[in-house]
Amino acid sequence: MNERPVTGRIVWANAAGILGAFLIVAALAWAIHRYMQPPPLGEDRAAVRAKALAELRAAEAEALASPAWIDQAKGIVRLPIEQAMLLVERQWGQNPAAARSNLIARVERATAPPPKAPEKPSPYE
User: Fold this and answer.
1) CA distances (Å), 115 to each of 27, 72, 104, 109, 119, in order?
2) Fewest CB atoms less than 10 Å from the CB: which of 22, 83, 102, 121?
């Protein structure tokens, strides 16, 4: 048989080849992991929710700062807090009994139950 002695060069070449193969496989695994990973689930929802919150806060600030009709048929108006406080002070300072009866009448009008629906006659009558 023709046996050749294993030299240091061959051992180092084999070791470098094996190490290179492992590094290539590791780089491919890292690349696949990085490029195939889906985006975080709530990323787009967070932006939508932040926008909705900003719109809600702007609407609330507008509602607190400006008067508007809540129910024109019942005569319910939304007033800014400062104006409402001045109005209440003026009414209660002039005549507390009239202001109290006015307040009770407005609360009853605002919270009155709707009228009862008419009963339908039976189709068999």
Assistant:
1) 76, 18, 20, 13, 12
2) 121
Q: Distance between CA atoms of 102 and 90, rounded to whole angstroms?
A: 13
- Global pTM reads 0.41
Read off the DSSP letter of residue 69: E
Find where tokens 């002039």 sit. Answer: 94
Per-residue burial over 38-52, b = 16 or more CB atoms within 10 Å of its CB, e = otherwise: eeeeeeeeeeeeeee
- Sign of the torsion angle spanned by Cα atoms 7, 11, 14, 20: negative
Indicate the domain borders of the chain.
79-112
Give the pLDDT confidence of 60-104 residue by residue, as tens digits: 998 888 899 888 887 788 889 889 889 889 988 999 999 899 889
Q: What is the pLDDT of residues 29-64, one digit of tens each?
A: 999 999 888 777 777 888 899 999 999 999 999 888
Q: Is 97 helix (H, G, I), strand (E, B) or coil?
A: helix
- In whole angstroms, what separates CA 105 from the centre of its chain? 39
DSSP 119: P
